[in-house]
């Protein structure tokens, strides 16, 4: 696939690194040559220095022959204009743009369609992160929750602790503990090493367990791995940007929410827009303010400013003063593994959420959802099955008969609204939604080929 990526920031760079290893022809455009030179030395891709929305630059990049244009510069306006130019001058078939400004997003149905601004898919990092945070609030104790198949199936990452009924027992005991609930453990991370789970695998305290189940059964499965935490009711949010406001709005009807914003003018504006959230003007590093607002009673402290270091430090302070959980927004990917799992409970990455959303539109075949799982090495895909036994490598075949690469697991199937946790004798049918866990992204191209009907191959 010939792909043009506009913007060599963290998202553009990470996306290019993901796709270049999958036999794609990548051209990366940015106006800063030092970024481009570094990437060209490191990867087999083409780089062009220049304005991403320039017709001349897009022509030089080969927009007329490109299959896909992904606009992820730091400017919404540049991303919008680039898609318009690619459509009008070069008829580029698929155009994806990252849009952050809430005003554009509110009018997306009127603005973004072929007769006005021809963008095929819009990615909003703020909305993606807001949704991720609210899912973590909904499932106390989870480290990551990702929904598939219209929310009917979920992949959950959680930690096993002493007190969980399954801790110290083999995975095969799970069925005895929950005879009426089915789930599949697809990965275990133990002391930094990934273990491929088998029935004889003993769950140990401290294991990071990734499992797939019907969404309504998430809490029941989690209760086997740890003592279920009480619902989160008292939330403190630091930073009143788009994400902070979005999270406050999403939670204020079910939780007591306090929001701290440093800028007095912005704090006053947020107070007008949030009906039930208490808004304070102040500094999250002010111990006296945190004590006054009873930080020791806070269930979740969310530090969501645009400053990674400030988020980390305020979260560490909040935990020391008694907050039960701390979640932080982290822009730099290098920080995530450094801080996650220690004093700070969750590090949330807008980049990782954005990459997942982008990959869902880029992967070959009919792929409804892609999620990058924690630590970035693994991926889960929701693949819609097409074809028949004569044109497909999977239709009409049992899961046991499929030649899956090492570390690739079919976890669940949605068929006619019914969730089937995948077992060896399940036969794949046309129109199934199949949830595939891939432990190593190097196998993605094999998976794409396996699930594509022969008519898709050119």
TrEMBL record:
InterPro entries: K_uptake_TrkA (IPR006036), NAD(P)-bd_dom_sf (IPR036291), RCK_C (IPR006037), RCK_C_sf (IPR036721), RCK_N (IPR003148), Trk_Ktr_HKT_K-transport (IPR050721)
Domain RCK N-terminal: 1-123, 232-348
Domain RCK C-terminal: 143-227, 368-453
Swiss-Prot/TrEMBL keywords: Ion transport, NAD, Potassium, Potassium transport, Transport
Pfam families hit by this protein: TrkA_C, TrkA_N
SUPFAM superfamilies linked to this entry: NAD(P)-binding Rossmann-fold domains, TrkA C-terminal domain-like
Highest taxon in the source lineage: Bacteria
Name of the protein this chain belongs to: Trk system potassium uptake protein TrkA
């Amino acid at each position: 696939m010939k792909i043009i990526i506009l913007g060599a920031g963290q998202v553009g760079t990470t996306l290019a690194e993901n796709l270049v290893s999958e036999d794609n022809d990548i051209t990366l455009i940015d106006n800063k040559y030092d970024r481009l030179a570094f990437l060209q030395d490191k990867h087999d891709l083409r780089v062009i220095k220049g304005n991403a929305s320039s017709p001349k630059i897009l022509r030089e990049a080969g927009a007329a022959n490109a299959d896909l244009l992904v606009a992820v510069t730091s400017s919404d306006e540049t991303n919008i204009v680039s898609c318009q130019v690619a459509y009008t001058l070069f008829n580029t078939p698929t155009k994806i743009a990252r849009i952050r400004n809430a005003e554009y997003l509110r009018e997306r149905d009127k603005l973004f369609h072929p007769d006005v601004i021809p963008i095929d898919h819009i990615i909003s990092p703020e909305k993606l992160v807001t949704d991720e945070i609210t899912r973590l609030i909904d499932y106390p104790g989870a480290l990551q929750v990702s929904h598939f198949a219209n929310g009917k199936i979920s992949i959950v990452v959680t930690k096993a602790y002493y007190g969980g009924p399954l801790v110290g027992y083999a995975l095969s005991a799970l069925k005895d503990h929950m005879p009426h609930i089915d789930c599949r453990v697809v990965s275990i991370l133990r002391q930094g090493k990934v273990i491929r789970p088998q029935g004889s695998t003993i769950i140990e305290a401290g294991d990071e367990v990734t499992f797939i189940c019907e969404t309504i059964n998430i809490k029941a499965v989690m209760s086997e791995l740890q003592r279920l935490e009480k619902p989160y009711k008292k939330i403190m949010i630091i930073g009143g940007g788009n994400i902070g406001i979005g999270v406050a709005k999403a939670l204020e009807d079910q939780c007591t929410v306090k929001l701290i914003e440093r800028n007095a003018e912005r704090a006053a504006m947020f107070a007008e827009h949030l009906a039930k959230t208490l808004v304070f003007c102040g500094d999250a590093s002010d111990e006296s303010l945190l004590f006054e607002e009873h930080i020791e009673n806070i269930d979740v402290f969310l530090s969501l400013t645009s400053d990674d270091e400030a988020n980390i430090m305020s979260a560490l302070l909040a935990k020391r003063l008694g907050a039960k959980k701390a979640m932080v927004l982290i822009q730099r990917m290098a920080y995530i593994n450094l801080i996650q799992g220690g004093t700070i409970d969750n590090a949330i990455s807008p980049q990782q959420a954005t990459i997942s959303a982008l990959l869902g539109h880029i992967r070959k075949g009919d792929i409804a959802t892609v999620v990058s799982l924690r630590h970035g090495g693994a991926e889960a895909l929701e693949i819609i099955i097409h074809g028949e036994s004569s044109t497909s490598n999977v239709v009409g075949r049992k899961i046991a008969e499929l030649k899956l690469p090492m570390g690739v697991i079919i976890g669940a199937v949605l068929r006619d609204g019914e969730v089937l946790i995948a077992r060896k004798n399940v036969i794949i049918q046309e129109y199934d939604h199949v949830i595939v866990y891939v432990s190593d992204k190097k196998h993605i191209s094999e998976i794409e080929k396996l699930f594509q009907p022969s008519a898709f191959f050119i």
